[in-house]
């Protein structure tokens, strides 16, 4: 089989030739001058490869030979003629030929190859395997060049001109683009070699092991040093974040959530103190009313156990009586409680009439005491969920914009964080420059910005109904971030605590008699007994006072493990 002969060369005036896409970005001025001198002396010995300009229908576009073309223009002027090979080619064929021609000659720099790789990958619809095949590269080489494509232009030029080494560029590729130029200035001004540059970057990175936020997103982040280790020979140690702005933003968000939770707890504690003061003066009157209401299992048990408590207190003062005596006293007290109670005069009670009905305690009345805590806790839970899910955050922003509620986000909420979200210089830019800065945001950083906006909406939107609807649609589970604790229980009276214990299953777990004994103690002891009941786990139990539909939320099928039991691998993630 006879191989096809190459197309014959012809000559064309330089004025009819235009520069097509050229992967080459940097042309050495010394070598350019040498080539101009050679062309003037010997003429152009190797033809330029061109193709017809299909868009304009006139002239030709260079496929290979851009450096010779530039030198010929200087040597012969636009009217000078040069040898060319004309070949019909599609845009994609021309792109691949141009890349291959420069790559085979080994003259193209790493950044030129990076820019070419971006174009080929786009033409392959982000199929890296196909892009590597078309370029004739290994997948590893393609991944490395694509990582270098994120370098800012000054760093690319510095590498093209060999003012920095490839190792410098690989280290800088792990730094956000808005910080690379400043780092480059430091490297050039101080004459830092690759080793010292790595040491400098290590000092300004953040140790992920000490992060106080959820690090699951960091696993696939390009600014995680582990990702750089997989790409480049030159990298910093594993387990470090090279995006200080993102790290600081997530840290501040986590601290803000912690502060708000502590603030809610302190507010609940203040409310509980007022409630406790009220209970101190009202417990005796409540006991008398319980006795007047007739036979009641829990009331009878309260009276019996209250007698037990009195004897226990007495025994501590006058010496411990025998076990037989304690039993007799308890039985006597219980019998007295069962006898018909004579009417009590108002002067004897000093407070309420004997026929005054006891105030009813319902789930609604309990929930009304916790409205502020409930709404603040759900807003925080929704904000955390949106901050961790850019898709849900984007949907929230769109709904807020279309419903006209997006302006409810406080101006200072995002303006004050713009420097962390976008870049340190962003607040000082004019509006047009801010548009450009937003358009240049890498995908992960743009997703972080959207998440922050969605989280801000959850915190600031005026109507809690909007928070409720979003939480339901996105299946936000409050049990992931909150559970019954001392501060919550201190917000309620003893009767309200009895209702909470009943709906959450504590009374069924320890029995009516045992809980009645708890109820006869001081409120602080009652709460301690509720929280530390043997064999009872509060995790995963959501009282109706804290749910969105005022219905008790039982624990999930798989109980939530206490923090101390979370596997080490989960904590590390």
TrEMBL record:
Kindly state a single biological-process term from the GO annotations of this entry: chromosome segregation
Q: Which Pfam families match?
A: HTH_ParB (PF17762), ParB_N (PF02195)
Report the SMART domains cross-referenced here. Answer: ParB
Q: What GO cellular component is one of the record's annotations? A: chromosome
Tell me the keywords, alphabetical order: Chromosome partition
| Ranges for region Disordered | 270-298, 325-369
- Cross-referenced PANTHER family, in alphabetical order? CHROMOSOME-PARTITIONING PROTEIN PARB-RELATED
- Name the family: Belongs to the ParB family.
State the name under which the record lists this protein: Chromosome partitioning protein ParB
């Amino acid at each position: 089989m006879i191989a096809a002969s190459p197309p014959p060369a012809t000559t064309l005036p330089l004025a009819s030739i235009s520069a097509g896409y050229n992967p080459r970005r940097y042309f050495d001025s010394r070598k350019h001058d040498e080539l101009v001198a050679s062309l003037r002396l010997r003429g152009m010995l190797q033809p330029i490869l061109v193709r017809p300009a299909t868009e304009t229908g006139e002239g030709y576009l260079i496929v290979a030979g851009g450096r010779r073309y530039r030198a010929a223009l200087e040597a012969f002027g636009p009217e000078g003629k040069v040898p060319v090979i004309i070949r019909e080619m599609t845009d994609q064929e021309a792109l691949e030929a141009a890349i291959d021609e420069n790559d085979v000659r080994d003259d193209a720099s790493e950044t030129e190859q990076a820019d070419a790789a971006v174009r080929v990958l786009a033409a392959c619809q982000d199929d890296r395997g196909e892009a590597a095949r078309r370029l004739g590269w290994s997948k590893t080489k393609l991944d490395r060049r694509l990582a270098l494509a994120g370098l800012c232009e000054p760093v690319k030029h510095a590498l093209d001109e060999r003012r920095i080494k490839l190792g410098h560029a690989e280290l800088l590729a792990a730094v956000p683009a808005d910080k690379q130029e400043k780092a480059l200035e430091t490297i050039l001004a101080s004459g830092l070699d690759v080793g010292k540059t790595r040491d400098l970057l290590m000092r300004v990175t953040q140790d992920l092991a000490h992060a106080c936020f959820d690090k699951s997103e960091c696993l696939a982040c390009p600014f995680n040093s582990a990702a750089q280790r997989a790409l480049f020979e030159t990298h910093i140690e594993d387990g470090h974040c090279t995006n200080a702005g993102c790290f600081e933003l997530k840290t501040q968000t986590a601290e803000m959530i912690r502060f708000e939770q502590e603030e809610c707890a302190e507010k609940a504690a203040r409310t509980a103190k007022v409630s406790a003061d009220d209970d101190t003066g009202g417990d005796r009157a409540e006991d008398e009313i319980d006795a007047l209401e007739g036979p009641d299992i829990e009331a009878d048990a309260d009276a019996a156990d209250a007698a037990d408590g009195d004897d226990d207190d007495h025994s501590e003062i006058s010496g411990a009586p025998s076990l037989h005596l304690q039993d007799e006293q308890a039985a006597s007290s219980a019998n007295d409680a069962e006898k018909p109670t004579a009417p009590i005069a108002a002067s004897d009670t000093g407070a309420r009439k004997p026929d005054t009905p006891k105030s009813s305690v319902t789930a609604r009345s309990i929930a009304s005491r916790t409205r502020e805590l409930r709404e603040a806790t759900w807003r925080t839970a929704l904000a955390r969920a949106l901050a961790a899910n850019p898709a849900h955050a984007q949907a929230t922003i769109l709904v807020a914009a279309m419903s006209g509620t997006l302006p409810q986000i406080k101006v200072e909420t995002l303006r004050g964080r713009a420097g962390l979200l976008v870049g340190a210089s962003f607040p000082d830019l004019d509006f047009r420059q801010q548009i450009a800065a937003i358009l240049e945001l890498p995908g992960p950083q743009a997703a972080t910005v959207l998440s922050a906006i969605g989280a801000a909406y959850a915190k600031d939107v005026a109507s809690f109904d909007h928070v409720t609807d979003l939480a339901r649609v996105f299946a936000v589970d409050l049990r992931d971030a909150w559970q019954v604790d001392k501060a919550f229980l201190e917000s309620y009276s003893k009767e309200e605590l009895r209702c909470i214990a009943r709906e959450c299953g504590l009374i069924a777990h320890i029995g009516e008699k045992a809980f009645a004994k708890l109820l006869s103690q001081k409120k602080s002891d009652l709460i301690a007994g509720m929280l530390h009941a043997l064999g009872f786990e509060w995790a995963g139990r959501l009282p109706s006072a804290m749910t969105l539909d005022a219905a008790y939320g039982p624990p999930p099928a798989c109980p939530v493990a206490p923090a101390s039991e979370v596997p080490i691998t989960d904590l590390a993630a």
